[in-house]
Amino acid sequence: MLRRLLPTLSALVLGLAGLGWGLWQLQRIFATEREDARASLHSRREALEQYALVALRQELREKLEAARPALELAAADPLAPAAGLYLRERGEQVLPRLALHEAGEDTPARDRYTRLRSGKEVPDEEEGPWMERLALMRALERALDRRNARAATEGLVAFLQHRARYVLASTRDVPGFLVVLEALAERATPEPPLMQSLMHDGMEDGQGHRLEGLQRLLLLKRSRFTRADFNFLHERVVELSRRTGTPVIDFETRTAELAAAPLPLPDSIPGPVLVRSGWYLEPKDEDHVRGVAVSPEALLETLTREMRERGLFGPEGHVRLLGTQEVMPLARLPLGVETPEWGKEEEALERRYRLKTGMVVLCAGLALTIAALAFLAQHRKYRFLELKSDFVATVSHELRTPLASIRLLAETLEWRLEQGAETKDYPARIIHEADGLGFLVENLLSFNRIDKGRWVPHLAVVRLDELASTLRRDLEAWARVPVELNADVGDRELLADPQLMRLLLANLARNACAYNTRDPVRLHLESLADGRVRFTDNGVGIPKAEWERIFGEFYRLKGQGREVPGSGLGLALCRRIMRLHGGDLRVAASSPEGTTFELTFPERR
After folding, report:
1. What letter does residue 101 receive in the DSSP assignment?
2. What single string gives the DSSP state of each residue in 298-317?
């Protein structure tokens, strides 16, 4: 019996061995495909993280490079703005500027000022330069009392030359300089340029020496005075500056910015670093460190938005700073790119692998079953030759059932594969962002049409209060923060294109909301008696040097283009709209308390 079954058994063993080897190789192919797919996903993630790292490094270096002129100016000029700038030299913080006042409550500078004003200052005989300085001051005062312009001019020149030649203690030099300038303002009428040079700009003495203005001098020598003396001199300088019409806003702003303590930044900076508290620092050499204030969150949000626009990942993907360390070397920034799509892809990959593995196991099981059935059938064949007909019937019945099962299982697997096909579900865009993009598109199209001369305004009589009501409704729709709009326009009417006027006011309002740190945002629309219209906000203000530049195409204020989205076309479009109507738009006033824009319309006939 065994001899008869040996060929069949050998064939089944060889067949099962070949089938097993084939299924094992197939399983290895499936496993290799899974590992390759995982490696591809990981490579994509590493490539995106590397791209994000390079882009962030470039952005940080560009920010520092863009801030370099302002940093060099602020380091040399105590009246120059230094917000968001950092400079450390020889271990001492230079920017942001420190108060650095003398310790104690004494007031030697104020006492000397009082004595000089009352004429009771009596120097010691050993104080030769100070005695000469007092003599020159008294000679100048006598010339001013006599109204002798020539003698006063000669006395002032002699006084300034003496200041350039001798360096006296700041508690003597600054009060003396202040007393002389007060005397000039009280007893004479010096030319405004001269007084502005003495108070603010400074001047050259003709021998290569720089004589700083009083405002700069007080800020430069602030470490030589006690806090009480500095505050007293500051008040006197502000009062004298206003009396003489000298600009004082820079002086007051820089004084208010003086910090009491250095920034808590690391002492040792071996290379460019990003500080989580909001600074990018870069050592120039062992004794010099430069830096600029940055917002890591805003930079990562901008980088995320850029990568989404490039299609590098979906709308739910984002770039994050990993880890908890406060100081991060730029060469090893712990950036991570996260997106739910990768998790879904990995899950789909594992699901497909499990299905393929199940199919291999099922095929192996079916093969074993068939082999066993074949062996039993052959065994029965030789054992029950006499029951051939019954054997055939039995085998036919026994085979029909597993074949039907195989077909049913195949159809079920096919259905499961069809149902398990991966589909992507993209979430809807945020309404506010869609509105912002739509507004940007409207700005771009309107600017292009006006710039190409293809917009013909449809002039109509428009009530200014109706435009204010429309703007109020628009603000309620898209503003993220509370906005208060106050319209003092009466029954003023304009001959203008309503659509363009609405676009103009919307651009001014959006800028006011974007460049604002107050809550609520306050807007004021006012109609003046001579036909002009003013739009005022309580935003961060615009430096006077930028009043005309902001109306240029794609121009953004430095240090703000990166904390505020926009195209740089809003104000340029507003001015073109006004000129299209024959009018004009300009900045009437601006300060840290807000900005006023003035709209001038042509006279109605």
Report:
1. P
2. HHHHHHHHHHHHTTSS-TT-
- Do 578 and 504 touch, CB atoms closer than 8 A? yes
Q: How far apart are CA 605 and CA 217, in angstroms?
A: 56
Mean pLDDT of the chain: 81
Does residue 400 have a pLDDT over 50? no
Predicted confidence at residue 428, as pLDDT, reads: 33
**Cα distance between residue 177 and residue 162, in whole Å:** 11
Cβ pair 497, 581 in contact under 8 A: yes
Residue 274 · residue 296 · CB < 8 Å: yes
Q: How do residues 262-318 score in pLDDT, each as one tens digit?
A: 888 887 888 898 888 888 999 887 778 999 999 888 888 888 888 888 888 788 888
Q: Count of alpha carbons within 13 Å of 170, Cβ hemisphere only?
A: 18
Phi and psi for 271 in degrees, rounded to 5?
A: -160, -175
Beta strands in 294-373 (DSSP E): 318-321, 327-329, 335-338
Output the six-digit token pair for 24.
Answer: 């094992």
When pLDDT is cut at 50, 70 and 90, the band that residue 236 belongs to is very high
The encoded tokens of residue 541 equal 């203000």
Question: What are the beta bridge partners of residue 368?
Answer: none
pLDDT tens readout for residues 46-101: 888 888 888 888 988 999 899 899 988 888 888 888 888 989 888 888 888 888 88
Q: Give the CA distances from residue 445 to residues 389, 439, 454, 500, 569, in Å, rounded to whole numbers and listed in that order.
A: 89, 10, 11, 12, 11
Taken in order 155, 159, 160, 164, is the CA torsion positive or negative? positive
What secondary structure letter does DSSP report for 528? -
Residue 242 DSSP SS3: helix
The pLDDT value given to residue 394: 39
Q: What is the 3-state secondary structure (H, E, C) of 194-225?
A: HHHHHHHHCEECCCCCEECCHHHHHHHCHHHC
